[in-house]
Amino acid sequence: MTLLAHDRYCDEIVRQTDELRATLKGADLDAQVPTCPDWTLRDLAVHVGGAHRWAGEIVRTRATGQVPDEQVPEFTPDGDDPAVLDVWLADGAAKTADVLRDAGRDRQVWSWSWDRSAGFWARRMAHETVVHRADAVLAVRAGYAVAPELAADTMDEWLEIVAFAQSQGDPEAAELRGAGRSLHFHATDVPGAEWLIEFGEDGFTWRRAHEKATVAVRAPLTDLMLLINRRLDVDSGRAEVLGGRELLDFWLERATFR
Q1: DSSP label of 65
Q2: Which domains does the chain have, with CATH numbers?
């Protein structure tokens, strides 16, 4: 697996935020987000902007421990005015991207993950924005597209996160075991964009590979990315499932991280 360039992740934080802002423009910000049913569109936007600022503050201060939300400057927008929210989103994304660029990929900082670097936060915030932009698009029923290399890396990162969750004893991820079973995710529109998940007695492993599996899932790459992030329903008609549907459902129900 090859990561994208650090500057690319920084650029995507801004680019994906700009596309999120365009999706929100003129929308009913009190509308419910179907894929995040506890949130309105406004809640979604505040979550994304707050995450950007939080990650940026961790890197800016070279934090060695978790930074409380109340210590993050402008963690929430000032009021409910959509215009203020729009400026707040744009400003936070730009500032965070600048901090991450200045720090460089290898700068050591705190993170909750296996990777304690500024590079982790650049990648994490890029993909956080990619997936939550999908939430907003689904809420307003607009079109959605992601560059193939970014969609594939979003899938890679999510599999890494679920594997990390399992290693940390997350109760749902801990159930992703059982020897002799496997899942194959196959993008139908991008050569080589394929993932094999193999279940063992002690957990699961994954790799990029084209091999026969217990269950195969075929779809365009962006739809695969949305499906594995639980933003696309298996019954949407946009993915073909070959083999026992139960194993796919088993994976999707437990491949989480809280």
Answers
A1: S
A2: 6-144 (1.20.120.450), 149-254 (3.30.1050.10)
Q: What is the DSSP string of 75-115?
A: -S-SSS-HHHHHHHHHHHHHHHHHHHHHH-TT-B---SSS-
Neighbours of 107 (CB within 10 A): 16
Q: Which amino acid is at 97?
A: A
For residue 131, the model assigns a pLDDT of 98
The encoded tokens of residue 55 equal 């990650």
pLDDT per residue as tens digits for the range 22-45: 999 999 999 999 999 999 999 999
Paired residues of 226 in beta bridges: none
d(CA 190, CA 194): 9
Is residue 240 helix, strand or coil?
A: strand
Interval 46-99: pLDDT, tens: 999 999 999 999 999 999 999 999 999 999 999 999 999 999 999 999 999 999
Bridge partner list, 215: 183, 243
Q: What is the pLDDT of residue 256?
A: 82
The pLDDT confidence band at residue 258, using thresholds 50, 70 and 90, is: low
Q: Of 164, 55, 64, 57, nearest to 108 (Cα)?
A: 64
How far apart are the C-alpha atoms of 10 and 56, rounded to whole Å? 11
Give the chain's mean pLDDT. Answer: 97
Identify the three-state secondary structure at position 184. strand
- The whole-angstrom separation of Cα 40 and Cα 32 is 4
The pTM for the full model equals 0.96
Strand partners, 100: none
User: Are the C-beta atoms of residues 217 and 185 closer than 8 Å to each other?
Assistant: yes
